[in-house]
Amino acid sequence: MEEHSPRQGHIIEVNIENPGGERTYRGGKICGEAPCGFSDNGSASKDAKERTASMRKLCIAVVLCLIFMSLEVVGGIKANSLAILTDAAHLLSDVAAFAISLFSLWAAGWEATPRQTYGFFRIEILGALVSIQLIWLLTGILVYEAIVRLVNEKEPVDGFLMFLVAAFGLAVNIVMAVLLGHDHGHGHDHHNHDHGYGHGHGHGMMVTTHHHHHHSHEEHGKEGEHNHHGHGDHTEPLLDNSKPGPQEKEHKKRNINVQGAYLHVLGDSIQSVGVMIGGAIIWRFPEWRIVDLICTLAFSVIVLGTTINMIRNILEVLMESTPREIDATKLERGMLEMEEVVAIHELHIWAITVGKVLLACHVKIRPEADADMVLDKVIDYIRTEYNISHVTIQIER
Amino acid sequence: MDRSNSFNHSSENPSLNQRNSDVGYSTNDRRLAYSRSFQQSHGPRTPAAAAAMVFSSGEAAKPFLDRTVSSIDMPPEIYFGDGNEELFGEGKEKRGEVSVLRLVLEIFRVLRSGSRQMKRLSLLISLNVAYSTVELAIGLFTGRVGLVSDAFHLTFGCGLLTFSLFAMATSRKKPDHAYSYGYKRLEVLSAFTNALFLLFMSFSLAVEALHAFIQDESEHKHYLIVSAVTNLLVNLIGVWFFRNYARVNLVYRKAEDMNYHSVCLHVLADSIRSAGLILASWFLSIGVENAEVLCLGLVSVTVFMLVMPLFKATGGVLLQMAPPNIPSSALNKCLRQITSREEVTEVLQARFWELVPGYTVGSLTLQVKSGTDDRPLLQFVYDLYHDLGVQDLTVQTDFS
Fold first, then answer.
1. How many CB atoms lie within 10 A of CB B372?
2. Is residue B44 classed as helix, strand or coil in its secondary structure?
3. Alpha-carbon distance B173 to B400, whole Å?
4. What's phi and psi for A254, nearest 5 deg?
5. Among B394, B396, B340, B392, which residue's Cα sits nearest to residue B367?
6. Which of A95, A284, A83 is nearest to A164 (CA)?
7. A123·B367 Cβ contact <8 A
8. Minimal Cα distance from B84: which residue of A?
9. What's the rounded Cα separation, in Å, for the pair A99 and B201?
10. For chain B, what is the mean pLDDT?
11. Which residues of B touch A29 (CB under 8 A)?
């Protein structure tokens, strides 16, 4: 039962039949069947682009890390220094963190299955959690090693070597931080702009079909056409308006896994700075060995402090809480302001990953109101005001 | 302006409600619009109504399915503290100050009124903390590295157990503004963190075994035996407390199951590790070669196998996976039954996930022929999924 669009009108619509015969209705209100995963209105390919860009960054970082690590291992074995080998082990932990981030990024792109109906986007969050735990674990190990160094009074601490090794580590980490932090954001803008206009093209899944809806009421004839055109005029500016908004946010928000790797590298550089300071002081005053421990402790606390923000974000997503950028009370009030809406219950807004929000609620309407129209209105309101596109509304009378 | 309006409204509401929940609200239109939702919502699920619902008892229209409510009531100040935090900047500092005092009070409340398992867990944690502090002190003063490392390991473990305790205490809170589903997920999260830590531990034991293999130090630190024996005893007490959960594969019926299971596995793994150390030193004293490598390797593998099922189960819940206790065939059968009804054209988007084990949430979108009355259809769908155990279902019907 596939319908063709015989009339083009002002909207450029392309109806590409899918073998499954699924249709999308209501201007992309529903995004198709379950295996579509979670892509809405072509954000799938935008996601994929962002993901490949992030993956490329991480791959380069991993390769660099491996090169530096092998350099350090060779140097450490030649100089027979435990400190250098320990630093090489630290770089290995960096590689592990990058590997986890890389895996999470790759896995997040898998298609949804019947058991994983929302797709695999959550893996990003879990991967970020694991890598933050790794940071904590490593910080703990560093503090432990500092204590051990203090306790083991037999070995003299070579301040100069500490300083040198830490400086090298710092240089490596800075290179990595620059690599991971640099945002290739411009590509996003252009890509998205294209979407504003030809938004039916090339995806095979998304089509605005308010057109179809009015087609079936052929008897409305002129009125249908009028509505259709009116709607057409609406859609385009609406899309253009809503896109740059979240787009700016995208610029500032890195992918959470890249951010996790960046935090890891940042933490390492902070620690290296601490070790450098400690090494310099011990080089100057070899008796003040406790400075090593104090520096390590102080800088460990700083490192833990940098992870707090990300842990809070992760926890909020995992606990299915309302995302911070959305004001649930305002949304509810806005919906109640519509005349046909009498009450709202069971409003749940949650995010599947940072940036992808879903909403589910029960809306009680007046018995004489047209359920269909109210549904449209509510969904449009939510989409335009809050940019939540995955909405499930149950209309009750 | 919006902010101050809602702030005033929420803060006035309790006093209004305390006086008389049936008194009509003033003629201010906005508040009237707001209050309609209070009168008709059915429970503390609507985020904005959470505050009001604490006082007024359910007078509202009953929805299709009622969610079970947590039976322990927490004093309402907590809601205002948490719920209003997001909306009003001015509330933030107040909340920050109060929370330190509140933390101490909370600890005492937990110890007094917690469930039996919580009390046992706090006892276990305090034992562990005491023991590890003593060990750390002795290790630092006598300069023995082994004791210090053991103390660190214990401290990490204690931190995790404290997080589990915190999760148990917090998960009793009712759902509020920001956490519309409640706090029960924290238990699953703490179980996941415990499992993750145990995996890290097994990995580090494997590294230690490798280290021992390469270094081939036969000189074993004998003072560790005393600490290992004490550790073993403390952990065995813990296993006894949580003996109901001392299994590898467990069916999880409630949220706490996962948390208790993870705590039990934690203490079990710790005791296995201590036992392994004791065994290794005994073997060494007998003269078996590579005893340390063998024992550590064995312990590492055992802990890994113990933890994997828990890790997978908690990971599945956190990943929004379809509930494992509902087989796909049952879900497909339900979909077929729905599609076979004449008014339904198509089912789009049937998604299910578990909030905590035992509580399934679903959302469904149906395409129905225009003009049909959707009420019997909704009732049918709800009944169908209620039999499967889906407690919270939202069904969107699109008329074609």
1. 15
2. coil
3. 42
4. -85, 165
5. B396
6. A83
7. no
8. A329
9. 19
10. 76
11. 398
* Torsion region of B149: left, alpha or beta (phi above 0 gives left; psi -120 to 50 gives alpha): alpha
Is residue B164 within 8 A of residue B259, CB to CB? The reply is yes
Does residue B86 sit in helix, strand or coil? coil
Q: What is the mean pLDDT of chain A?
A: 73
What's the pTM? Answer: 0.73
What's the rounded Cα separation, in Å, for the pair A125 and A354? 8
In tens, the pLDDT along A235-285 reads 444 444 444 444 444 445 678 888 888 888 888 888 888 888 888 888 888
Alpha carbon A122 to its chain centroid, in Å, reads 10
Structure-token pair, residue A302:
């700083």
Q: Give residues with Cβ within 8 angstroms of B297, minimum separation 6.
A: B205, B206, B209
Handedness of CA B235, B240, B241, B242 (dihedral sign): positive
In chain A, residues 351-390 whose CB comes closer than 8 Å to chain B: 352, 360-362, 364, 371-372, 375
Tokens of B174: 């009712």
Query: Which candidate in A29, A92, A117 is best for mutational testing of the B interface (most B CBs within 10 A)?
Result: A117
Closest Cβ opposite residue B177 in set A29, A151, A328? A328
Beta strands in B118-197 (DSSP E): none
Neighbours of A117 (CB within 10 A): 22
Question: Cα(A290)–Cα(A217) distance, rounded to whole angstroms?
Answer: 83
Q: Do A34 and B140 touch (CB under 8 A)?
A: no
Structure tokens at B353: 């996930």
**Antiparallel, parallel or unpaired: β A356-365 and A390-396:** parallel
Cα–Cα distance for residue pair B283/B295, rounded to 1 Å = 9
Structure tokens at B234: 């403390």
Binding-face residues of A in 148-167 toward B, CB within 8 A: 148, 151-153
| Contact status, residue B315 vs residue B200, Cβ threshold 8 Å | no
What is the ipTM for the molecules in this complex?
0.72
Does any CB of chain A come closer than 8 Å to the CB of residue B140? Answer: yes
Chain B segment 277-306 residues within 8 A of A by beta carbon are none
Q: Residue B46: which of A342, A345, A375 has the nearest Cβ? A: A345
Q: What is the rounded average pLDDT of the residues A20-48? A: 49
How many angstroms separate the CA atoms of A241 and A230, rounded?
17
Nearest-CB residue to B320 (from A22, A31, A122): A122
- Dihedral pair phi/psi, residue B369, rounded to 5°: -70, 145
CB A171 within 8 A of CB A267: no
CA distances from residue B86 to A217, A322, B8, B348 in whole angstroms, order as listed = 46, 10, 15, 35
- What is the phi-psi region of residue A346: left when phi exceeds 0, alpha when psi lies from -120 to 50, beta otherwise? left
The amino acid occupying position B290 is N
pLDDT in tens, B335-360: 999 999 888 888 888 899 999 898 99
